[in-house]
Design goal:
Layout: E1 2-11, H1 18-36, E2 39-44, E3 51-60, H2 63-78, E4 84-93
Antiparallel strand pairs: 1-3, 1-4, 2-3
């Protein structure tokens, strides 16, 4: 069994307040949960309307399966028109 965590720092340049940020993040988080069946949470910068840190947790039987899943999630975040990925890290727990 492999447990992995994808941590993504996002910049939301069009956001002017926390309501704008929540709109962008809720759509992104909901799509991620539905499409990939992973756990997703905003884990930092909750009071900053321009930044967000999202953690995505995934469990699988092999590193290849988990890595493929988290790479797909990362590509989804990379292609989001309203959010820019600043940094992304994958941590594995064996």
């Amino acid at each position: 069994m492999v447990v992995a965590l994808l941590i993504v720092d996002l910049l939301i340049p069009s956001s002017t307040n926390l309501k704008d940020k929540r709109r962008v993040l809720s759509g992104l988080v909901d799509r991620t949960k539905t499409r990939y069946n992973v756990s997703v949470a905003e884990v930092a910068y909750q009071n900053d309307h321009k930044r967000a840190r999202i953690a995505v947790a995934c469990v699988g039987c092999t590193v290849k399966v988990v890595q493929g899943m988290l790479d797909s999630v990362a590509r989804q975040y990379d292609s989001h028109p309203e959010a820019e990925v600043i940094e992304r890290v994958i941590e594995y727990l064996y």
